[in-house]
Amino acid sequence: MLYCRLKYYVKLSAAVDDFLSYSLTATKYVLILLSLAILVRCLRSMLSEKYESEVWAYIRLGRELLPATHWENIIGRSRSADVRIDRKGIGRVHAVLKRSDNGVWTIYDVFSRRGVWVNSIKVGPRGMNLDTGDVINLAGTTVRFQDITTAKRQKLEAQRTVPGKSVSPFGTLLELTVFELFLLLQHTMTAREEHIASIALAFAMLLALEWACYLSMRLMGRSGFEVETLAFYLTALGLSVAASSTPGDMYKQILLMTAAVVLFLLMGWWLRSLHRTTLLRMTVGICALALLALNVLTSDAVFGARNWLDFGGYSFQPSELVKVAYLYVGASTLDRLYRKRNLLAFIAFSAVCVVALALIGDFGTALVFFTCFLVISFMRSGSIATVLLAVAGAGMAGVLAVSMRPYIGQRFASWGHVWEDIYGAGFQQSRAMSAAAGGGLFGKGAGSGWLKQVFAANTDLVFAMVCEEQGLIIGICMVLAVLAMAFFAVRSARHGRSAYYAIAACGAMSMLMVQMALNVFGSVDILPFTGVTFPFVSRGGSSLLSCWMLMAFLKGADTRRGASFVVRPVKTIEEYEVVYDAEKDDYDYDDDGTESGD
């Protein structure tokens, strides 16, 4: 009888094991299908919908109306000018037309040879405010400034496309919810019993955060949610990495996720006022430099680098928070790059940041900062020569750094030769490539990999860890999610309201793109191993906070109607129609018959 009972329990246990094995295999395919569906829906919504420029004022040149589609418009004969006037004597970049938060327009002379005159008064270094009807003389060419009325602004806003009509953000978020539930299901099948409750609570909190964020946006009348969806998708993968490698820290992960989303919303609220934002750029810059100085003077070296500061029993990475401050200061300075002192101040600020990062040994982050500097500088200056000079200077600084820091030279020496020293310089990367290859296309399942036991697997080697547990397909989806946000930033920048939002968004995505490339290619030995985190996915509170705060800059650049929570929406009047009559050279308002012309 005892033998029969034992045989029964053995068969039952085998049946349970088989069921769990089949269930785990099924979840792998479901997760891949959901990842592809989420990406396709977000890409369709972000890249296929119309991106119409907003019109804020007009420059009247004879019978031609030239729209001012930004809050900072370059006037000149260059093809890249926002308001192009191809007339003799006008410089390639002749003047800048700028709008303040309260709707006041100011024109600045950008060191033109023949100057800028408004109503026969020469524009000085501080610029000159404009009113509707003011006559502007640009090197002998006369134009007239015309601001638009509130009614006209409402009409133009009503004509713009509302995002989310072709692809419902609710449906995409519902798919992401199912993805996270299946990810949690995998962990419940592989995690130790004492960790299941905390892992389930962490995923429940993530679900609550994303739905609360979505409902808040809907209550504010916002319709675009693709940026947040992709960020939550990557955060879910990051939570899975933390649950696999450090399941005992789930409560800490809950606090970090909550703080990250709250900071994202607070940053969006703060960026609503450009005047308030630029007013504090000096304070933010000083705080960033003080934080780096504290890091240089007080931190201890770990594996050749002094990246961390300990505070109250917790450690954080100052360079991650300085990324946000760097963009905050850089974009608010470069929105008026035609002021030479602003350019020099930003170059000095950038140099101090990079030197401080070099002193603490964080050369991967220093490279991220330098790339961001090139991107945001070129966006306003357009000078290839300046960029090449900066690259040459960085190259010489890199050679000097390698000669002064032997461990950096060792990393370069092992680049492409990790298999020759698998127990030395190539230990981490050789294990990472073996684990990623072992995961195949579909992975071993959440928590089932062995790479998590290798040092820095959940941070610097996280791409390989995800590939091992979730498969190469989801690893590629992870990369495509960052690329989708980058393409979105570039596309939005062309129609951006303010240069601040456009520069900050492109700068933020350049940081995240370089981080992603260094993490992915460094893990598989295509690039030297620099120890840089993968955005949102690598374990680490400082990195997660900075990534979500950078998303606020990207969200601010979204100019689609009702999509950005950074800029206050304009109430529209759908029935209000304005027709421009080129023959009469005026505006005909259908509701009251009044006209406005020269």
Query: Any idea what the shape is?
Result: globular
What is the strand content? 5-15%
Radius of gyration over C-alpha positions, nearest whole angstrom: 27 Å
The largest sheet has its strands arranged as 2-1-11-10-7-8
Q: Helical region count?
A: 18
What class would the helix/strand composition place it in?
alpha+beta
N-end to C-end Cα span: 106 Å
Proportion of helical residues: 55-70%
- Give the tally of structural domains: 2
What is the average per-residue confidence, as pLDDT, rounded to a whole number? 78
* Major sheet summary line: 6 strands, antiparallel
Total strand count, please? 16
Could you list the spans in which at least 5 consecutive residues all have pLDDT below 50?
A: 2-12, 396-404, 572-598
Give the SSE map.
Layout: H1 2-48, E1 57-61, E2 64-68, E3 72-76, E4 83-84, E5 95-99, E6 105-109, E7 116-118, E8 121-122, E9 128-130, E10 135-138, E11 141-147, H2 150-158, H3 169-190, H4 193-219, H5 226-245, H6 250-270, H7 274-279, H8 281-298, E12 309-311, E13 314-316, H9 318-334, H10 340-359, H11 363-381, H12 384-404, H13 406-414, H14 427-439, H15 462-470, H16 472-493, H17 499-523, H18 541-556, E14 578-581, E15 586-589, E16 595-597
Parallel strand pairs: 3-4
Antiparallel strand pairs: 1-2, 1-11, 3-5, 5-6, 6-9, 7-8, 7-10, 10-11, 12-13, 14-15, 15-16
